[in-house]
Structures are given as structure tokens and as C-alpha cells.
């Protein structure tokens, strides 16, 4: 983005009624006392970039911010609707999170406050890094690994069944060999018998024909038996699968009826409540800011009154102030200044309580969304099982119908066989009774042999199928090893990204500390460790970023200290150093044209001057709010702006 003069128009934001001003590229110093709308001006700049850390003027229902940079104009609108404020327009940034963290460094900045509170800094440091996509890859690979493990478990069971099938195959082969020998002997007897009989050729020919038909029908009935057996095996497999699915369904924790709806309702309620709390926080900020300005006499209304009093020769100050008394601008009575200050302090405390409520609601939302995801996953699995059980029931009915049809066919064949046997009985003569017996025995042997061969074919098919699947085991194990390697690489990548981020933060915090030149604050550094922490209802291992401080005592001895032991001003300095380091690490200046600085009172004026000079080389536009005495130490070439 080219560096050119920018124009800003503000209406009904914070304590500002209407404002139109311009900024030159580089540093702009907003000099003046506290409660002079400097922070409102900075928040207006932030709002133009897309930040929601902005409040409507307390007595306004609509507000807007317009920022023109070169040929581009960016507009944000704000409208009060009930207890919430709805924003619209086209900001400079589509996603202002990075800027809110590391470019818009007001006193309430999350990065500065997180350090002051002693929070874990990992989320803040890694938020701009695309770790989420890596975690999604890890989850996908873990699911793939679980699927492979299930397949390997199934193959292991098949492998255990293989020796049993091989023994069954050997036994069937032996039985077939015995039956073939018996059938050969029986056929030899028939041939010998036929050779000895020379009469009644016609009867024998018809008898042979009927016996042939009888053999054919027996083969047909054998085929029907095989098909019936196949259908029964399929039924057994369906029943086995059904039992497994029912067991799986029983193992699934029951999803309470309507629980997902309750969770969704609670999530919606919490989100609405968070919006209401944020609106309340914004309103409180406006009220606090307005009353601070009224109390300090810098409100535009008070300034106008002072100007009128000067013109008339009177003194508004004499009318409003006297012996620590002020005229209340809400009720018109005289009250102690300390009472109003006490009320302001309670309002500030209330604002902090609301912010804490908002954080608590955010944690509740996270837990509820995890619970909802778990319930939905269970419900999807239960639905899948129920669908498959329904399919099994339908398929089972179909196969039972086939079995009944085959049994009917078998019954018809038995009737035909009975008829053929009756015909054979009528045709047989006393001297051919032995021949008939031989044929019947041969038919039975053929039938038995066919059954054995069919069983052998089924066993061999099952063995071949198992062996084919077992051949895939090496591929599955290799795939699992590849997934484990990829998972290790992804986890290592996250750790590497975390380590690199920590290292860069430490380097840049050293650079910022070098600029500030503190004698008793040698180093601020972050240590990455892994700890067991609670996440929702379970404990997981997560990376934790701990902040350490190296100090020097009066004797010149360095020692490590914690943020909790620092003074309030030292914590503020530490939080600012951390936030400024984030600005440098993530190259925020490449995508965010403005950098804003406020609440630098914890740093002396000379250090503020060096800090401003240092970051002037990075930000296209740097707006810094300073007290008059601190502004005097900053380079006089920087443009000054004093809000009315």
C-alpha cells in the first residue's frame, strides 16, 4: 500500500460527536491530557480497519468511520439494535485479528493484558500461524490409522481361521478320494452285471433311461441342496453381522432425546449473552470515557461552556468546582469529586467483571460445542448401524424367500424322483433287482461325491479369499507405518513451528529491550514446555508457553523472576514488549497500514522517544497518544495533533 496522506472522518464514536482530520505518512503524535478523546480517535482508526473494539457514543443510535488512503475509501457503520450494536461496511482488513493482537496496542490490548495476567501465551503467539490445518490433517490420518487397525484386526481373525479351513480341505479331499474309489468299484460291478445279462434288452434299455433320468434328478436335487446351503450360510453371515452391529449399538452411549437441541439452544443463548455483555462493555466504556472527560473538564460541552464563560467575563470553573465540589451533570446537585471518582472506579470494576463473564461464556461455549460434536458423532454412528440393520432385515427376508422357493423346488424334485423310482420298480424283474440296487447305490455315491466336491469348492474359495486378503496385510501394515511417519512429521512440524515462533519472539523481545535500555530488566524470554491440561472434560498434553524475566539486583547479580512478582508498571512494560515483538515477528506492517500506541505512561519519555523512532521505520502510519510532557521528548519533526 502506497504511502500517501490519509483522511479520517468520525461520527458518534466513543466520546467523539463529529471529527474530520488527516494524517501524513509516518508518526503522528496525539499530545494532551487523559480523557481528551485521543483513545476514541485511535479506536476510530482501528474500527476503519475492521476491529470491533469500538463503542458508539452513549447518546447516539448510529455512528460511522470513513478512512481514505490514496484512491481507496473504507467505511464502517454502527447501529444500535436493542442491547447490541450491529456493524457493517467495507473495512481495510477482511480479518482484523492479527491487527487487534499486535498493531492496535491500547491499554486493553489482549496481548498486553495476557502478559499482565500471567496467561499462557501459546494461543496468542500461534494464532496467526496456520496450525489448524495441520491439526485437521492429523485428525484425518488418525482416523485412517484406526480404520487400518480395524482391517488388520479382522485379518488377524481370518488368519486364525485359515488352519481350520486347511484341515477341513484335507479331510474333504480324503473323503472325495474314498467316494471316487467306491463309485469306481460300484460302476465296475454294474458293467460286470450288464455283461452277464443278454436278455430283455428293451426292458433294460428303458430301465437304463429311467435310471439316467433318476441320476439327473438326483444331481438337480444336489444342486438345489447346494443353493439352499449357500443361502443358509449367507443368512448365518447376516445374523452374525447383525449381532455385531447390535453389540456396537449397545456399546454406544445413549444420546438423550433432545439433548443436542438443548445444547444448540444453550449455545445460541450463550452467544446472545456474549453479544449482550460485549454491548454492555462497550456502553460502560462510553460512560466511563464520557464521565472522565466531564470530570477532567475536557468534554466538548465543558469546553464550550468555558469559552462562553470567558466571553461573558464569568468563570465556569468557579461555578463547577470549589473545595473539591462539583455540580453533577446528571442531577444538578453538588457532590464530592471523590464520590464521582468512586463511582467511576466501580464502573471500571464492573467492566472488568463483564469481560471476565465474557471469557467464562467463551469457555462454556467451547465445552458445549465439543459435547455437541461428540453427540452428533454418536448419533451418526447409531444412524449408520440402524440403516445397516434395516438393510440386513430386508436382505434376510429376501434370502428366506429364496430358501422357501428352493425347498419347494426340492419337494417337486423329490416327487419326480419318487415317480421315477416307482417306474423303475415296475420295470424291474426279479433277475434285474440286483442291477437296480447297484444303480441306486451308484446314484447315492454320485450324490455324496457331488456334495463333498461342492463343500471342497466352498472351502477352497474361502481359503483363496482369506489368502488374498492376507496378501494385503503387508500393504496395510506398510500404509500404517507411512501414516505413523506422517503423523510424527506433522506433530514435529507443529513443535518446530512453535519452537521457531518462540525463538523469534525471544529475539525480537531482546531487540525491543535493547531499544528501551532498562538497567534492571536484562531479558524477557518465553519457554515452550508440554503439560497435561484440562480441555473440556478430558485431559490432554498441550504445549504451554511460559514467560520468564531476567532481572539484575542492586549488587549487579542477575536472577530469574516471574511476571507475578513484577510491579504494575513493570508488568505493563513486559506486556508492551511482548506485543511489539509480535508486531515484528508476524510482519504485521506488511498488511496493516496503521499502528496505534496508547497508555505508555509506564515508560519514561526518553524511552518512549526511542521506541517511536524504532517503529517509525516499520509502520506506514504510526499514531501514538502521549501526555504533553512525554510528547516533548519525541522528535519535534513528527506532526502533532491535539483532539478538541
From TrEMBL:
<dbReference type="GO" id="GO:0016887">
    <property type="term" value="F:ATP hydrolysis activity"/>
</dbReference>
<dbReference type="Pfam" id="PF13476">
    <property type="entry name" value="AAA_23"/>
</dbReference>
<dbReference type="GO" id="GO:0006302">
    <property type="term" value="P:double-strand break repair"/>
</dbReference>
<protein>
    <submittedName>
        <fullName>SMC-like protein Sph2</fullName>
    </submittedName>
</protein>
<feature type="compositionally biased region" description="Acidic residues">
    <location>
        <begin position="176"/>
        <end position="194"/>
    </location>
</feature>
<dbReference type="InterPro" id="IPR038729">
    <property type="entry name" value="Rad50/SbcC_AAA"/>
</dbReference>
<dbReference type="InterPro" id="IPR027417">
    <property type="entry name" value="P-loop_NTPase"/>
</dbReference>
<feature type="region of interest" description="Disordered">
    <location>
        <begin position="176"/>
        <end position="209"/>
    </location>
</feature>
<feature type="domain" description="Rad50/SbcC-type AAA">
    <location>
        <begin position="8"/>
        <end position="213"/>
    </location>
</feature>
<feature type="compositionally biased region" description="Basic and acidic residues">
    <location>
        <begin position="197"/>
        <end position="209"/>
    </location>
</feature>
<feature type="region of interest" description="Disordered">
    <location>
        <begin position="358"/>
        <end position="380"/>
    </location>
</feature>
